[in-house]
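Below sits our specimen:

——
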Amino acid sequence: MKLLLAEDDVMLGTSMEKGLALAGFQVDWVRMGNQAIEALSTHSYDVVLLDIGLPQVDGLQILRWMRKEGQHTPVMLVTARDAVPDRVAGLNLGADDYLSKPFDLDELCARIHALARRPAGRGQPHLQLGRLEVHPIEREARLAGKALALSQREFDLLTAFMRQPGAVLSVAQLESQLYGWGEEIVSNAVEVHLHHLRRKLGEPWIVNVRGVGYKLVQVP
């Protein structure tokens, strides 16, 4: 799952980035409001963690811009404990949740997973298509009840497909799910990870739509 973390406090941001990465998330961390807008303009994210007190462009302005642009990505506001008016304003602008500083990392991760499930109406913390199952919180994948030994990139690829079964995803869209903002991408890297994932699945779950991209289909 790919997150945008907009937080200008270096100590807190470093701690959150490391903790979320260890929990299996792909994190893009920006420290300025204008950087957040730039990242949101060029990449897609599953959840945005947005500090209200950002320099240059504050969190509420970013949230207002997102909703005006038709971006419905779930947003969690990260606020000071006593910033009640800001929290109320953020919720009125379209924020989906908020968390007061200081907070527990386990609670943050649980809330992120809950937010990511909401847009597709998923009440269960796992994804399933026929015999194929993905458990994002535990970072486990199973085929016909048997655990799949996937690398981090392979797991993220499979999760991206499982969130949109049947949808054709371009290589650029898959790159956006696998790599961070500004991270160098080796040529054909996505195709290499796809090759390994398809080999481990052992059946044609992932179909190449020539000239367009790839999609996940159910195999009986």
The radius of gyration is 18 Å.
